Amino acid sequence: MAPTGSRRSGYSRRAQYNLFTGYVIAGIGALIGAILLALSFFQPQLFGGVRGAAQGSLSPATETAATVRTGSKSVWENISGYYRAGSKNAQLKREMEIARIRLREAEAVKQENVRLKGLLDLHEAETKPVAVARLVGSSASSTRRFAYLGAGSDDGVAVGMPVRSPRGVVGRILETGSSSSRVLLLTDTESVLPVRRAGDEVVAFAEGRGDGLLRIKLINLGINPLEPGDLFVTSGAGGYYPPGIAVAILTETTDDGGLARIVSDPAAADYVSVEQIYEPEAALGAETPIERELTD
Fold it and tell me: Do 206 and 214 touch, CB atoms closer than 8 A?
């Protein structure tokens, strides 16, 4: 018996057959590959149908991958756009609020024009502001509601002149110095402003409460026609403010009117303008005591 170490790897006929079959298959594969390679160089159009069929079979998978890729990109863009849109949404919200106020004011002016349509020799001219300045301070610790304006008598500011921001009425000048003035805010307890609801003839008085809100008191008592969300504008009565300027928005109804928040918050106002008194004679008459009027 021959030693085990002297046996050859091809001792088994089965192993020899398997090895020979492998060589034959590899040779046939190499020959087919060479033939296909030669055909692809000299006759490339022969494989157009095969390539089209392969591409058609893979098309659903590639479309799915492209859809997933596009969808993931859209999701990422939506997420990043959501974080970027915060500041833009806040700015658009402020602009929309101002536009809504301007629309209500336009409706009030239209109603005023209809009411004054029968009058003759009525000429409305655009008035320029006396001064434009910042509100430089306020009475935070006092029970009264004052603000201090960085413009005074040297700038043409006088007592009684209305003060407004781009949103609406802020108050009126109470005292003046050479370079500064004190403003009586609408929310002060001594502030009373004749107003009317924008769009109709519901008239009332807007009285300050000292807590940042206004008390709307109807002149004609009875069934309260007010609803939360109603915008009140100046009526022009009293002579200080021209009609149609936004004042407050009703937030709660009461038996004789309601409570409203001011449209133009002084704390949020950047610049304010001081304007001429709308009707100086009417304003002077409103401040004249009845006893003096009767004596004259």
Answer: yes
